[in-house]
Design goal:
Length: 275
């Protein structure tokens, strides 16, 4: 269940940022914007860009998380939401509080609902992404329900088998999680043990992934990913304990999601090998 301020009921949920913490996030965003305009800041611009978007996400979650839950709930309850129509007529079924409650409780287990929710959230564009991209992606997600694949989602030929490539990317994510937790204040040993447990592997296997991934995915890609994770962790620690905890909670959710996907693909490989 999400941890966001809710328009349903009088009591905010646990994990909501205080007004002072929100001000701290805004101040950090402004600081990042100033830093990238300096010579030294440009050298770490990619990592700062990733961190700025992550911080902006915290603000959306804190201030408009109830609205995200509402649009997810529309998908759960199969209430029509017209893409890119940001001013639906008042007094319709879409106004019911039950949609926010359903969205907050949704477990993301149904791919069809996930697609509808994604289309709704893309249409609202809480990330402030370029309009052309949002329009193309929202329409492409809807086209999937009509058994059509838009060009933006067309498959590309890859050097690795799709499942093997996905496993490699998820294992890189595992290494990123270790680096983030280390930067955010955990010891490297604690970070490795936490991630290894989530992925159901030993710490030694986790370290072997770190050695092999540059050969599978490319040294630059791995180096850049690790650099972004390190910067994100250090920045989270610099923000202070409450905001650092919020970022760690977000990272914990990502870790669980990545580990679940990794387990599903690994099990698929195992079943195929037994045939």
């Amino acid at each position: 269940m999400s941890e966001r301020p809710s328009a349903v009921g009088d009591t905010p949920r646990d994990g909501v940022l205080s007004d002072r913490e929100i001000d701290d996030v805004i101040a950090e965003l402004r600081a990042l914007a100033r830093e990238v305009r300096t010579t030294d800041g440009r050298r770490g611009k990619d990592a700062r860009a990733a961190q700025a978007l992550a911080l902006a996400g915290l603000l959306v979650d804190a201030l408009a998380g109830w609205a995200v839950d509402h649009h997810v709930g529309l998908a759960v309850n199969r209430v029509a939401y017209e893409p890119l129509d940001l001013a639906p007529a008042p007094g319709t079924d879409a106004d019911d509080d039950r949609h926010e409650e359903a969205g907050a409780a949704y477990d993301w287990s149904n791919p069809a609902i996930n697609r509808r929710a994604l289309a709704n959230l893309l249409a609202a564009n809480s990330g402030g992404f370029p309009y052309t991209l949002v329009l193309e992606a929202a329409l492409a997600v809807e086209a999937l329900d009509l058994d059509r694949t838009a060009s933006i989602f067309e498959r590309r030929k890859r050097g690795l088998d799709d499942n093997a490539a996905t496993l490699a990317r998820l294992r890189l994510r595992a290494i990123e999680h270790v680096i983030f937790y280390d930067g955010a204040g955990a010891s490297r040993t604690e970070a490795e043990e936490k991630v290894a447990a989530a992925f159901d592997v030993t710490v030694e296997i986790l370290r072997q992934w770190a050695l092999r991934l540059p050969y599978l995915l490319g040294r630059r890609r791995v180096r850049d990913a690790i650099g972004r994770a390190e910067h994100a962790g250090i920045t989270a620690r610099r923000l202070g304990l409450p905001l650092c905890r919020a970022e760690v909670r977000r990272r914990d959710q990502q870790l669980r999601s990545d580990a679940a996907r990794h387990a599903a693909i690994r099990d698929r490989f195992a079943r195929h090998a037994r045939r």
